[in-house]
Amino acid sequence: MTLAELLPSTGCSTAPVLEAGLWPDGTRLDGQDLVIGGVSAAQLAARFGTPCQVLDESTVRARARAFRAALPDAEVVFAGKSLPCPEVYRWMADEGLSLDVSSAGELALAKAAGVPGDRILLHGNVKTGEDLKAALEHGVSRIVVDSFDEIAQLGALARHGQEVMIRVTPGVDAHTHAAIATGVEDQKFGFSLASGAALEAVLRVVEQPSLRLVGLHCHIGSQVRHVASYEEAARRMAGLIASCGVRIEQLDLGGGFCAPYLPGESSFDLFGFAQRVRGTLNYECALHRVPVPRLLIEPGRAIVANAGVTLYRVCAVKEGTTRTFVAVDGGMSDNPRPALYGAKYAVRLVGRGGRPKPVTVVGRHCEAGDVLADTVLLPADVHAGDLLAVPVTGAYHHALASNYNQVGRPPVVAVRDGVARPIVRRETEEDLLRRYL
Ligand SMILES: *Cc1c(COP(=O)(O)O)cnc(C)c1O
Fold first, then answer.
1. Is 285 assigned a catalytic role?
2. What is the structure's pLDDT at 10?
3. Could you tell me the CA-to-CA distances from 398 to 23, 40, 143, 335, 356 in Å, in that order?
4. What pLDDT does 4 receive?
5. Cβ partners under 8 Å of residue 137, min gap 6
6. For residue 101, how far is its CA from the centre of ligand 1 (angstroms)?
7. CA of 297 relative to ligand 1 center, distance in Å
8. Contact assessment for residue 218 and residue 254, using Cβ atoms and an 8 Å cutoff
9. Under a CB-based contact definition with an 8 Å cutoff, are residues 201 and 166 in contact?
10. Set 218, 244, 285, 366: catalytic member
């Protein structure tokens, strides 16, 4: 922590500071206003209303480029579920990334964005007949199979030479929340390496004349902090490649690279990852005398999370017996992550400073668990009409939004070089009514 960051908490300075590492690149303070992508947050709220999800295009593109630069010979695949939006998919394609989707719906967005089939992978522990047919129709180059049922079903549906990968559960504990730890044994994703199911899946795919096995895949979880977790996954997957008995051309180590959500948390060590995972893979493949496969990785959160900021308007302030509740015009419908896995956020009041006090920021929904941020510091005189900004809302916010209480989902507004442009519009009552018969 720098001296400048310490000063406000000691009450020695009134100069506002921005928490390092959480906000989109280039975000700055203009007096007490927040400027994101060259656009004032106060003006964004006035023009587009609240809640509003702001997305800094330059930050998204810069992070996509950083992954490509760190691993120039790997295929970098954007995890499309983290921010499903055709315009964002176009930015990724522009930056040379491929795309993974996990349903016919996400594939429809990819098609709308003009992403060609040979740059798309299809994932999912359940793929319905419709998902598989849509993928075959669009010529999705790689389908990552996740069960024996799916291998049989896809084998019957596919034309000759459909490329597939096999999702493996390598038994690596990535030390993350149980709800997002997808690499440990005894869970719904993938074929277990330890039980021999993964090897059996290889045999089953090879038996299907319409399928061509091109690779193995694993995804050990999300918000993974330690490079060592990926090294362990690479080591185990190399062992599996050696015991397959068939040539494995591609190894996909999935996504999960962490993003900082709170002051003091660090970004993922991308450089360390690139060096150490490459090294491990080369070493293990030499040891087992198998050719080194082409590496794929699938970042989602690490590319888009810190590019997003959500703006809310304070609607009411209420004193509880032990806490002050600050209620805003959004909540678990635009951000269910605190309720789903206890996710924590920083919150900032835009437009005013003042002596801070701890408050609990809550949403508008009919659940006591609709808490956006428990115990954050806001100016003590926070009141209805104030504007709040919550950083690190680019990943799994738009994606996880619902219209609980028939609250329309917020827009996503892209900002870049002082220009704001909606890329997802606000959901209206008309949108809601359209589905009711
Ligand atoms: C969700 C997911 C990802 C992306 O995870 P992040 O934590 O957003 O990086 C990558 N691959 C697969 C298979 C996934 O399910």
1. no
2. 44
3. 17, 21, 25, 8, 30
4. 46
5. none
6. 10
7. 9
8. yes
9. yes
10. 366
pLDDT reading at 71 higher than 80: yes
Of 185, 205, 187, nearest in space to 195 by CA: 185
Residue 300 CA: nearest ligand 1 atom is 8
Q: Within 10 A of 308 (CB to CB), how many other CB atoms are there?
A: 26
What was the pLDDT predicted at 197?
97
Closest to 427 (Cα-Cα) out of 412, 400, 408, 399 = 408
Are 212 and 248 in contact by the 8 Å Cβ rule? The answer is: no
Ligand 1 pocket test target in 60, 67, 81 with most atoms within 8 Å of CB = 81
pLDDT recorded at residue 183: 67
Q: What distance in Å separates the CA atoms of residue 158 and residue 137, rounded to the nearest whole number?
A: 10
Residue nearest to atom 15 of ligand 1 (CA): 219
Helix intervals (H) in 162-251: 197-207, 227-244
Output the ligand 1 site: residues, CB below 6 A: 79, 81-82, 123, 219, 222, 254-257, 298-302, 395
From the CA of 259, how far away is ligand 1's center (Å)? Answer: 13
Ligand 1 nearest atom to the CA of residue 254, by list position = 11
In angstroms, what is the span from residue 389 Cα to ligand 1's centroid?
A: 26
pLDDT of residue 404: 97
- Helix intervals (H) in 99-226: 104-112, 129-138, 148-157, 197-207
